[in-house]
Structure formats: C-alpha cells, structure tokens
Specification:
The complex is a heterodimer.
Chain A (H helix, E strand, L loop, with lengths): L9 H15 L5 H13 L2 H24 L16 H11 L2 H4 L35 H15 L2 E4 L4 E7 L6 E6 L2 E3 L7 E5 L5 E5 L11
Antiparallel strand pairs in A: 1-4, 2-3, 5-6
Chain B lengths: L8 H9 L3 H22 L6 H15 L6 H39 L5 H8 L3 H13 L4 H10 L6 H8 L3 H21 L4 H6 L1
Helix pairs in contact in B: 1-2, 1-4, 2-3, 2-4, 2-7, 3-4, 4-8, 6-9, 7-9, 8-9
The chains are: A alpha+beta, B mainly alpha.
Chain lengths: ~220, ~200
C-alpha cells in the first residue's frame, strides 16, 4: 500500500497489515487495538491504511453480496417430506429458471419412457379431444402450448430438458429419469423492479428503465 | 446465513445422509451463499454464478448419501464440489447460455443479459468500486483470492473459512491480510481508492 513509506521495514509492514485486517474484520481484541494505536502514533499513515482497507472491504462486501444474491433463488431439487406433487410445483418453478436452463441438459429424447403408456385421445385432425376426463398430462400441456401460442403468451418449449435424477429400474431394463421441462413466455409490463443491495447490504427494489426500447417506462 | 433454522447441523447432516430430503434442503439454504462465493473465486470470468450453483445443488442432492465424516466434513465437501463445477463446467455453461440469451432477446425484444442488469442496478459509487475490486481480486493467487472473497460473505469467520478450506484459522487470517495488501496495490495502479475518490 502506498501510504507506507518506502523505507519501512518488512516486519512493521506485516504487523500493520495484520492489525488493520483484524480490525476491519471485527476480530480485534483490546490488545490488538492497543498495539495498533501504538504503531499509528509512530506511523500515522497506518490510520489511512485502516480507512482504506475498511472502505475496500465494505465495497467488496456489497459487490459480493450482489453477485451471490441470486443464490437465494437456487433451490434444492428435492421434495419436502410428505409434500404432495402440487406442493412441490412452485418450488420447482422458482429454481428452474434461466439458471437451470443452461445446465446439465441430457439428450434422452427418443428414449424417454413414462411409467405407463400415454393415451392420447385425439381427433382425426390430431387435436386433443374435448373430453377432459380422458386427457393425459401431455394433452393438457399441448393445450397450454397451443392456446398460449395463439394468444402470444407462449413462444415455445425450451428444447433442452434439465435432468434432476436418474435411477435404474428395479424391474426390467432402463432408468427412471426425473427432469424439468421449461417454456418460454412473453408478457408486457409497465414497470420492472430488480432487487439490488444498498450500502448496508439490504435488498432494495430498483426501478429499471429500458433505454432504446420503444414504449419503455421512463 | 440469511436463513432462520435452529436445527443442529450435525443432526441435519446425519439425516441428509440417511435420505431425509428436508434436511438436504435446510443444509443447502444455510450454505448456498458461501458456496456461491467459492464459485466466484474459481469460475471463469464469463460464467454465471447462478447457473453453476444450480449444478452444485444437483450434485449435492445426488451425492450427499455418500458423505462421510459428519458435520466436520460438510464444508470441505461442498467446497470440493463447487470448485469442481466451477472449473469443469464454467466454460461449457457459458457457451450454452449464449444461445439462450439470443433466443430470449429475439422473443421479447428486451435485454435480459444478467451482466447488463447488474450494470443498471450498480448505481452507487461504492457498489461500482466494489465490482472493480472484485474483478481485480479474481486475478489474485488461488490461495489468497478464495479466503478474501469468502470473508466478504456476511457472517463468515476465519474459523468457518478455515474449516471449508482445510486450513488453520491463523493461516486464513494471514492470507486475508496479504490478499488485501496485494489487492490494494493493484487497486492503486488502477486508480481505485480514497485518493482517487478525493481527486474525482
């Protein structure tokens, strides 16, 4: 650090570094403070070292806090004990975002075998029938995609699926796979808020502006 | 760390190893923030921490049954997974992500690039200064960069960092002090600091 004189002996330099660092980390005891006061009396630049180090640490802590803030939205791909599949759905929705989209895609398309053969009640035009009682989950999903594409909500399904778990089947050959399917949707909103961190490390909403995008909120 | 859970860590680890998924979830909630800092310390610059963190989460849930050594082994084990993911998957993830961002840009007409959003959010000088320091810190030697970044995760003590890295807390303290000096020397070369702020 350039606050220290060039001819300073290495031992004093290291001692100041250690004390400044310990004080910055709130790990200094009474003896440390006494030692620092004594050193700073003889080497006043040590006070500036302390101020600069504390500022660096505060700035980096905020930056690291912002960088790892998204960690709070990364959830374990597990179900709570006794939770129904409906209970677990929102949790999956939360962590299966863009972060999830880019990782661990496995090409098991074509080899995918559901537990039971899916019955696909369709009309001759290939459109799912209207008897909802006979619809499979895939029928409902197809309805969501078709209807969403017509309304402009759904742009399509992300081709890569996120593999969560594989288990060899106990009977017969093959594997059971647990995976996430994702869909790209489009919406129009009047305002965007993003959570940032203020200087005290608290999450604060920040209104986003979109310069250059026609119709963007001011 | 940001998650209220009074459960005993040793009990949670034992339960998680036995297959209790609630215990796995609680362990993750307690540790994911510092694990993210480990990723930042070791991942390529262009990688995204939340992508890699999802990979870590998936590996943790699939491998925790093999964890031996109880509570004492948990932090080193999580760190080893995080470093492995950061080094082996960082670049691959980024290549895939580039394709996704193109799709979303086309779809919505908005930039959803995470880096750009953070630029918008970094409105205070301190945050901007912190980001510049963090970038400089990424070039510090391995053994110094990681403890320095971990110390910036709220609530991590020298002892906890030492447990994760398998080093005595006195070594961690020394490395953090030296890392700070190295970082400051680089920051001054880059014009970051109180002198630069006063002149601005």
């Amino acid at each position: 650090m350039n606050n220290a004189p060039d001819n300073l002996d290495l031992a004093t330099r290291d001692r100041v570094d250690m004390l400044v660092s310990r004080i910055t980390d709130a790990e200094a005891g009474t003896q440390d403070w006494a030692a620092f006061s004594d050193l700073a009396e003889r080497h006043p630049w040590a006070w500036r070292e302390l101020a600069q180090t504390q500022r660096d640490h505060a700035a980096m802590s905020v930056a690291v806090g912002v960088a790892i803030q998204s960690a709070d939205t990364v959830f374990m791909p597990v179900r709570s004990r006794g939770a129904s599949s409906a209970d677990s759905r929102p949790r999956f929705a939360m962590w299966a975002g863009w972060a999830a989209a880019a990782c661990m895609g496995v090409a098991f398309f074509g080899g995918l075998r559901p537990h039971a053969p899916a019955t696909m009640p369709t009309t001759t035009a290939g459109v799912p029938g209207t008897n909802l009682a006979n619809w499979t989950p895939n029928d409902y999903l197809k309805g969501y995609v078709d209807s969403g594409e017509k309304s402009g909500l759904v742009l399509g399904e992300v081709p890569r699926r996120l593999l969560i778990e594989t288990r060899p089947l106990q009977q017969g050959e093959g594997f059971e796979v647990v995976y996430v399917r994702q869909f790209v949707e489009r919406a129009q909103v009047t305002d965007l808020l993003q959570f940032a961190t203020d200087e005290a490390g608290r999450a604060v909403p920040v209104r986003q502006t979109m310069p250059g995008v026609p119709g963007a909120p001011e | 760390m940001g998650y209220h859970d009074d459960s005993n860590t040793a009990d949670l680890v034992a339960q998680a190893v036995d297959g209790d998924q609630d215990a796995v979830r609680r362990i993750w909630a307690r540790h994911r923030r510092w694990v993210a800092a480990i990723l930042i310390a070791h991942m390529p610059r262009e990688a995204e921490v939340d992508d890699l963190l999802q990979d870590v989460a998936t590996l943790v849930v699939s491998k925790i049954h093999g964890l031996r050594g109880g509570e004492a082994a948990l932090r080193p084990w999580l760190r080893a997974i995080a470093i492995s993911v950061a080094k082996t998957r960082g670049r691959r993830t980024q290549v895939r992500k580039a394709g996704w961002l193109k799709l979303v840009n086309w779809a919505g007409g908005w930039s959803v690039d995470g880096e750009q959003q953070r630029d918008d959010a970094a409105t205070t000088p301190l945050i901007e200064e912190g980001r510049r320091l963090m970038n400089l810190a990424k070039d510090l030697p391995d053994g110094y960069r990681e403890p320095l970044l971990l110390k910036c995760v709220q609530g991590m003590s020298y002892k906890e960092i030492g447990e994760a890295m398998g080093l005595p807390d006195t070594t961690i303290e020394t490395r953090i002090a030296r890392a700070r000096r190295m970082l400051r020397e680089r920051a001054e070369s880059a014009g970051i600091g109180l002198t630069a702020a006063a002149e601005a």
